[in-house]
Every structure is written in C-alpha cells, then in structure tokens.
Amino acid sequence: MRQLDVIGIDEAQFFEDLYDFCCEAADHDGKTVIVAGLDGDYLRRSFGSVLDIIRLADSVTKLTARCELCGKRASFLLRKTEETQTELIGGADVYMPVCRQHYVNGQVVVETTRIVLESQKIQCSSLA
C-alpha cells in the first residue's frame, strides 16, 4: 500500500472496519481517502459507520438524486417492497429516490398498507 497516494472506497456503509481503516490510512499512512456510501437506510437511520467518519474528514460533499415523483432534490430512498431488513440489495425495482415530502407521504402509505395486510392475515387465519 506504500505506492498508493489515494484510496477510494465505494459502498462504504457495508464495511465494518471503515472508521479504523480510514483513520489508519489517512492519519498514519498519509493517504488521501475518498469515501462514497449511504449515510442512512430506507428508514433514515444511520447505516453502517459512514456518519462516524465525517468527523475524520477534511471535507464532506453530500450528493443527492432527483425525486422520481416531482423532480426536486431527493435526499431519501423510498423502499418499494415489503421487505424490512436493513440490507436489501436492489436497484430501481426496490428503491426510489424521493424528496422529503414524498418520503414522508410514502412512508405513511407503506405503513398503512402493512397494517391492512397484517389485519387481513389475522382475519384469514381465524377463518381457517
């Protein structure tokens, strides 16, 4: 690793040792480390240790997409499936970039749908 000046890390949210690696590479080995990754999951909770390394950074650039519904700046991902695990690999079939308004409205729709589906499962089970 001595001949490298710059280290790039993509999908950083999946690296468990991200903080320690970046600290070692930048502080002790003198490397420039460029990190790209999601800072939050589909529920807007911290995802991996991407947020932890911000305090190590010389600079931070937060990129956004465009809301697929209105074209405004999209800072959030709306999950289009009923899957609830944090790590769900997928593209446009699973996630949609959305603005704050459409994220909040979309989460309400998703949660309402889940409640209705769960109540239907209970009703169907009691009929069997």
TrEMBL record:
InterPro entries: P-loop_NTPase, Thymidine_kinase, Thymidine_kinase_CS
GO molecular function: ATP binding; thymidine kinase activity
Top-level lineage group: Eukaryota
Reactions accelerated catalytically: thymidine + ATP = dTMP + ADP + H(+)
Enzyme Commission no: 2.7.1.21
Keywords: ATP-binding, DNA synthesis, Kinase, Nucleotide-binding, Transferase
Keyword Glycoprotein: no
GO BP, one annotated term: DNA biosynthetic process
Enzyme class: transferase
Coiled coil: none
Family listed: Belongs to the thymidine kinase family.
Protein's recorded name: Thymidine kinase
